[in-house]
């Protein structure tokens, strides 16, 4: 075989080998390697979660909103709302448990272009295009280690209980069976019983629906109504659980032919017992006239007396604890503007609210102790132990603890709550029975 013939044979063999390697073969289809794995395999105990942050897209404001709950020095607070105390144990446990054992069940796409169709666009990257954004949820432990960092999108059509999810730094989108139990409603995370009173413990109600004329600096229409619960000393037949007109200072009698409307007083007390807040604002440690007036509260020149521009009510408990609720200016806004005073950069909450004004109202809560009203520490019968010194009473201690809670905040209440508690003097009276009217004459 000459050189040329040998070369031809080599070329032929090489061609034959190439053709053999390119022949059609049956290839086994490999599933995605991470299918069926847990999203967060190292997260198995919801009790180690020490913070929760949820970032969502605010379509109205074309920006993202952040809501955060965190455990600080053993106390749950809401950093997004100036560290207002949170009643978070139950909600935090449910939110954290939502992600334990959740798997990468079905891979949907590896294309970034598909993120909008699954609503898994990171809200921080929305850039004014809110359509297709998801909820960015971050959970960390006490050391700051990230336990969960995921974007949750739409429900998966035709697969009950499944949602689209992806990691913020990855393009891959999964369909995962996920029962999401995360709320960003401020009211869901706080103690819903603001005053912590029981209506059966209320001994006295003082209502004074005056107004403050800011132009002339005067308080007008001051007409306090003082009702006390118990046996009316002027009526021997009265029972212990009725409301009667107590002698205020100066004395203010019932309108002619009228008596206290027991039901009207109970409605105001009941509204205070059920009172819930819709927002908070931090109260400066050193209160200034400007900080007060901006919320509709005013102080006498000597600094000794406070007024709300829409009046006040006092609720006196049997143990001498006195709540004074001052009603101030209308609080504008919605969403984070309303609940926490958060607004766009360079704008106040009022400016951010624009035309979408919802009638809520600022409220200032003051707590004190009145030893004379403490029915649990009155002069004892002959031979019994003498009354305790005021600072030793349970009422004094309770008032001191409550002051520490309320002295840090201006509150925002709903207009319906305001209207249920804010009543004029005549609203507390009804026509007297004929025999009572005749006796009065």
Q: What class, by secondary structure content?
A: alpha+beta
Sheet with most strands: 9 strands, antiparallel
**Number of DSSP helices?**
10
What does the overall shape look like? elongated
End-to-end Cα distance, whole Å, is 147 Å
Strand line-up across the major sheet: 4-3-2-1-6-7-8-9-5
Mean pLDDT: 85
Strand content: 25-35%
Keywords:
441 residues; alpha+beta; 2 domains; nine-stranded antiparallel sheet; 10 helices; elongated; disordered N terminus
What is the fold's blueprint, element by element?
Blueprint lengths: L2 H19 L27 E10 L4 E10 L2 E4 L5 E2 L3 H9 L8 E4 L5 H4 L16 E7 L4 E10 L6 E5 L6 E5 L24 E7 L2 E3 L4 E3 L4 E6 L11 E4 L12 E3 L1 H12 L3 E6 L6 H5 L3 E3 L6 E3 L3 E6 L1 E13 L4 H5 L8 H5 L6 E15 L19 H13 L2 E6 H7 L7 E3 L2 H7 L1
Antiparallel strand pairs: 1-2, 1-6, 2-3, 3-4, 5-9, 6-7, 7-8, 8-9, 10-13, 10-19, 11-12, 13-14, 15-23, 16-22, 17-18, 19-20, 20-21, 21-22
């Amino acid at each position: 075989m000459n050189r040329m013939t040998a070369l031809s044979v080599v070329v032929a063999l090489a061609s034959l080998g190439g053709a053999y390697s390119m022949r059609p073969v049956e290839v086994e289809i490999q599933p995605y390697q991470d299918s069926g794995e847990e999203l967060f395999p190292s997260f198995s105990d919801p009790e180690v979660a020490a913070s929760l942050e949820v970032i969502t897209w605010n379509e109205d404001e074309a920006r993202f909103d952040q809501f955060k709950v965190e455990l600080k020095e053993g106390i749950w607070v809401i950093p997004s709302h100036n560290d207002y105390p949170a009643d978070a144990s139950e909600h935090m446990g449910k939110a954290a448990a939502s992600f334990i054992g959740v798997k990468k069940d079905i891979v949907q796409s590896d294309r970034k272009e598909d993120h909008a169709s699954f609503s898994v666009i990171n809200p921080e990257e929305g850039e004014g295009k809110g359509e297709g954004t998801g909820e960015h949820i971050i959970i960390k432990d006490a050391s700051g280690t990230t336990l969960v960092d995921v974007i949750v999108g739409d429900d998966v059509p035709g697969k009950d209980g499944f949602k689209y999810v992806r990691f913020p730094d990855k393009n891959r989108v999964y369909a995962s069976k996920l029962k999401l139990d995360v709320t960003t409603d401020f009211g869901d995370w706080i103690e819903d019983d603001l005053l912590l009173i029981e209506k059966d413990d209320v001994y006295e109600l003082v209502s004074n629906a005056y107004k403050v004329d800011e132009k002339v600096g005067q308080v007008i229409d001051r007409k306090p109504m003082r009702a006390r619960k118990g046996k009316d000393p002027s009526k021997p037949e009265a029972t212990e659980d009725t409301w009667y007109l107590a002698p205020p200072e100066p004395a203010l009698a019932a309108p002619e032919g009228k008596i206290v409307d027991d039901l009207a007083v109970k409605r105001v007390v009941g509204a205070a017992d059920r009172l819930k807040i819709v927002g908070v604002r931090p109260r400066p440690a050193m209160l200034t006239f400007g900080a007060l007036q901006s919320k509709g509260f005013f102080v006498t020149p000597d600094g000794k007396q406070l007024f709300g521009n829409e009046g006040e009510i006092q609720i006196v408990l049997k143990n001498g604890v006195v709540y004074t609720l001052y009603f101030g200016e209308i609080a504008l806004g919605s969403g984070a503007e309303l609940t926490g005073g958060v607004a766009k950069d360079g704008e106040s909450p009022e400016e951010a609210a624009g035309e979408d004004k919802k009638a809520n109202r600022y409220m200032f809560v003051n707590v004190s102790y009145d030893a004379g009203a403490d029915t649990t520490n009155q002069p004892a019968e002959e031979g019994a132990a003498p009354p305790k010194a005021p600072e030793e009473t349970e009422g004094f201690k309770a008032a001191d603890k409550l002051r520490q809670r309320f002295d840090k905040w201006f509150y925002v209440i709903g207009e319906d709550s305001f209207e249920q508690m804010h009543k004029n003097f005549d609203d507390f009276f009804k026509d007297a029975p004929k025999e009572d009217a005749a006796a009065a004459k």
